[in-house]
Amino acid sequence: MKSLTINASQRESVGKKATKALRNAGQVPCVIYGGDTIVHFAAPEIAFKNLVYTPDVHTVVIALDNGTKINAILQDIQFHPVTDKILHIDFIEIFDDKPITMNIPFKTTGNSRGVRAGGVLRFNLRRIKVKGLSSNLPDFIEGDITNLKIGNKLYVTDVASEDYTILHPDNTVICMIKTSRTAVADDEDEEETETTEAPAAEA
Q1: Which domains are assigned to the chain?
Q2: Do residues 154 and 175 touch, judged by C-beta distance below 8 A?
Q3: What is the C-alpha separation between 160 and 130, in angstroms, rounded?
Q4: How does it assemble (predicted)?
């Protein structure tokens, strides 16, 4: 999985007044949990652009101004209800030997038989919740839909891997091929053609 580095400054003052001053200066107050101690830091809002405003997932290296580097993942983020500015971010420290839980983006491969016949690909899940070591987690999970006909479904069990554990029930549907008006119309036209041609064959 890809990793981003965020250069940040550790902060000692964590009160409301100090937090407000940071935001007024264009800084985002953040916290890292999960380690031996809770770490408070701040970084410019623009530093989080490639982490927050993207469909991709990343691990993060928080490079503090005291030389400390902490590996982490984004846990929670708060936005201003009006301006959508980032107000606060929570991170969880990660370790090489401890599994983590993440929502990994899902992508399809192949050209579905059902879609070629006029069906429509519908998604129930855009991200799949998995658990595993950070070094084993992929940037995205792929599922082949080539053989899916109209009415067929792709389940989470179809994209299982030894590298991680999927945290959804086995009967969870990722996507399916649903019928459409075009597909129904094609079926009706085919039936009409067969009915019309039958008498001619008897004559």
Answers
A1: 3-94 (2.40.240.10), 101-186 (2.170.120.20)
A2: yes
A3: 10
A4: Part of the 50S ribosomal subunit; part of the 5S rRNA/L5/L18/L25 subcomplex. Contacts the 5S rRNA. Binds to the 5S rRNA independently of L5 and L18.
